[in-house]
């Protein structure tokens, strides 16, 4: 069955896809969201309950993006009675020489200073005294930025879904993977198991499943896939609380690599603290290889790190989860925001977001993607996130 035309079809109904659809609805654009699974599923990069909102980054443009995201979180919070952000601050600490997937502490300090963002420097001993860590090497340093928060990510997605359901011009279709994309002049014709849908423009935001969609347009993005482990550890001291945090260290025989953690929150096992490795031992070849069972060695490293360096927690994980993430293999490119490459017909009407850790930017990315789809441009400078067509691979 062929439906009437849409202004924009959003492919992918995760957090950022729903945020994009919400902003499109706010502009009265006739919008269809196609989600291959069900909404609020646990099978992609929107899996899990909590995420970190933080401002520290080693690059000024990323710090600026975090700052620009704040008013959009404030706006979204006004739409729900459920608390979306628990503002506990961000603690970065560890070996000052380490450069990790998150960057480097000294570079982050320079970026924060350049944009006038307040933070506090900490010594190894101050980190232990103020934030419940222990046995840290003497050379470790830290920074604390007070605007960091734990994101109630499940509630964020549910809020965006509810807002989309209320928008008169937004339609939602789940269990609707896109099987084929044809072009008829300036229109796109998308085939799903539930029907054929026609649109003037496409916003392609399917998280780690990006290539399964853009392959239908004869190009792909080079990415690696992580099945990220996560675990919850019971508090042995019920009064203890942590900020959101990340530790920078080099891998050794008994510590794995980088780790990060969250405070206890009412919405996510409140008697527990979530701690997770920020590495995977074996990346996946394809998203279809993901599993809901965490890698046991990654969890063992996490438990050992808690035993060595954290207080007030059991070292045995009682709840676990995984999250599938796609990471760009392009140097210095975490988030990819661009139009389709020029050899794709109608490429300026195809907007693509892919790869990276972006939950903290969810409502702002929805604004950016909706403006790119409708206007062909955005007020926010996306230059650092553009692929450059040499990085798109033709099939």
TrEMBL record:
**Protein name as it appears in the record:** Glycine/D-amino acid oxidase-like deaminating enzyme
Q: What is the lineage of its organism?
A: Bacteria, Pseudomonadati, Bacteroidota, Flavobacteriia, Flavobacteriales
Supply the PANTHER family for this chain. FAD DEPENDENT OXIDOREDUCTASE DOMAIN-CONTAINING PROTEIN, PEROXISOMAL SARCOSINE OXIDASE
**Domain FAD dependent oxidoreductase as annotated: residue spans:** 7-372
Q: Required co-factor?
A: FAD
Kindly state which keywords UniProt assigns to this record, in alphabetical order: FAD, Flavoprotein, Oxidoreductase
The organism's superkingdom is given as Bacteria
* Database matches in InterPro entries: FAD-dep_OxRdtase, FAD/NAD-bd_sf, MTOX
């Amino acid at each position: 069955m062929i439906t009437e035309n849409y202004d924009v079809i959003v492919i992918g109904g995760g957090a950022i896809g729903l945020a994009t659809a919400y902003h499109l609805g706010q502009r009265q654009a006739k919008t269809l969201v196609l989600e291959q699974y069900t909404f609020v599923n646990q099978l992609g990069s929107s899996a899990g309950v909590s995420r970190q909102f933080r401002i520290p980054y080693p690059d000024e443009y990323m710090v600026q993006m975090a700052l620009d995201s704040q008013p959009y979180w404030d706006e979204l919070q006004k739409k729900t009675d459920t608390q979306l952000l628990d503002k506990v601050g961000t603690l970065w600490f560890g070996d000052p020489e380490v450069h990790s997937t998150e960057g480097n502490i000294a570079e982050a300090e320079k970026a924060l200073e350049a944009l006038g963002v307040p933070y506090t420097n900490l010594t190894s001993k101050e980190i232990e005294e103020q934030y419940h860590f222990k046995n840290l090497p003497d050379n470790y340093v830290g920074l604390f930025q007070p605007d960091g928060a734990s994101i109630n990510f499940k509630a964020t997605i549910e809020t965006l879904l509810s807002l989309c359901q209320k928008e008169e011009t937004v339609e939602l279709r789940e269990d609707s993977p896109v099987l084929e994309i044809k072009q008829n002049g300036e229109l796109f014709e998308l085939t799903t198991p539930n029907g054929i849908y026609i649109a003037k423009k496409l916003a392609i935001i399917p998280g780690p499943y990006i290539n399964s969609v853009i392959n239908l347009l004869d190009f792909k993005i080079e990415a690696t896939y992580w099945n990220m482990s996560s675990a919850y550890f019971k508090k042995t001291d019920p009064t203890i609380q942590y900020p959101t945090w990340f530790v920078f260290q080099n891998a050794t025989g008994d510590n794995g690599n980088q780790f990060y953690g969250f405070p206890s929150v009412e919405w996510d096992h409140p008697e527990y603290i979530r701690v997770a490795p920020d590495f995977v031992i074996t990346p996946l070849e394809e998203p279809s290889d993901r599993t809901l069972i965490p890698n046991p060695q990654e969890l063992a490293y996490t438990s050992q790190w808690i035993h060595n360096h954290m207080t007030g927690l059991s070292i045995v994980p009682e709840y676990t989860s995984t999250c599938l993430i796609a990471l760009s293999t392009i140097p210095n490119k975490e988030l990819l925001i661009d139009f389709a490459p020029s050899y794709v017909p109608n490429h300026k009407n195809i907007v693509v977001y892919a790869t990276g850790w972006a939950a903290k930017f969810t409502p702002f990315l929805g604004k950016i993607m909706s403006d790119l789809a409708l206007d062909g441009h955005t007020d926010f400078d996306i230059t650092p996130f553009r692929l450059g067509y040499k990085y798109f691979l033709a099939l």
